[in-house]
Description:
The chain has helices at residues 177-180, 184-196, 216-223, 288-294, 315-318, 327-342, 374-383; strands spanning 9-12, 17-22, 31-34, 37-38, 45-50, 53-58, 67-73, 76-85, 88-90, 95-98, 103-109, 116-120, 123-125, 132-137, 141-146, 155-161, 164-173, 203-210, 237-240, 244-247, 253-255, 273-281, 300-306, 362-367. It contains seven helices and 24 strands.
Amino acid sequence: MFTSKIEPQLCIEGNKLHLACAVYTDNIEVKWYKENEQLHKCENILIRIEKYQRMLTIEKTTVADSGNYYVKAGKVEMRIPVTVKDMFRRPLVDVTIMESLDTKFEIETEEENVHVQWFYNGKEITESTERRQISRLQGRVHTLTILQTRLTDSGKYSIKIRAYNKVVELNVKEMPETIKNMSVYDREAFLKAANTGTTTRYNVRVMIVGKQSAGKTCLLRRLMNEEIDDVISTDGINIERRKCHIDIKTGVWHFYKSSQKPQVLSVDQSEKFADCAFWDFAGQKEFYATHQTFLSANAVYLLVVDISEDFKSKTYENMIEKEFDSIGEYIDFWLDNIHCYCTDDKNTPMQCNEDGNLNPPVIIVGTGIDKIHRVCLRYYCKANR
Ligand SMILES: Nc1nc2c(ncn2[C@@H]2O[C@H](COP(=O)(O)OP(=O)(O)OP(=O)(O)O)[C@@H](O)[C@H]2O)c(=O)[nH]1
Ligand SMILES: [Mg+2]
């Protein structure tokens, strides 16, 4: 009966499905079936005869049109498996969002490079504007992004691909009072974190430790380009924040002048710069017991040592109940202390850094060089080489 075969069909919803076969003579009547149900001509179905050709067309397919189709001529039949795939791998869905956040409508189509049209309340969005951006990624992913969504952006958004049309709702909610009342900086940070799902912050802690009157506070003041005339003995710990930022890429340290206010990094800057905080510890032995609590491995240490000091005879009275034979022994005492307390820290990423040196890094800073006579200094340098 049939002189041609119809191959299994695969199409994407919204597209036309066209089945055609040829019969032996032009007076053969054929009937079309989907599973057991006969198909008749209607708005969406076209059945045509052209001499030996017998044709069935479904104008606009849906996923529900998938199944086994049959074309029958008398007792002879031919089976045609048909699969109609969903237009979207990822469909368009309704969105509820807080004002000021970015709204993103995103779909992934089964077909590559299809022509997609976006509509807002029935009106086509023909091109990207500053706040409303249309884009196509990798040929299949199509997005409509509304930056800093406003309450007035609420409404019906639709996407049209050929005859296929899908409408979704955008519901923009007012910003809660608690967020409105935040500082500009905090609100910006909150919105950025809410938009991206993450936020990155870099913090560096520099701990300045050493014996009483070693010159810790003076060193910090000098680093900050500040005067040292009015320096008094530190009581507990003095923390200086937001006066120094470190460029993450270049590693360059930027200090702000004492006359400048502490600098708060903007949200964008905080991903490029680390806020460096200096912890200036008091050197009196009475504070040592509490200092341990603050010694963290996630820090850089500046161990300040007055190199003009006579460690053999003087340190014993001022420091803890320990005598030192040399400045080297005194420095070892501090290094042991720092590394001993810090290795207990569960947040320590590693005990040694890339150079194999113990973490945290300790930089020894010698003060009081001006108190040593030139001749002694030469001798001193030779002896400690
Ligand atoms: N000659 C000289 N004096 C210094 C030097 N560094 C600091 N001083 C003096 O030493 C004294 C103590 O300095 P600070 O910076 O307060 O010492 P500190 O280590 O912070 O002392 P505490 O806070 O009590 O632990 C001050 O009078 C400073 O002027 C230095 O390199 N040479
Ligand atoms: Mg001090």
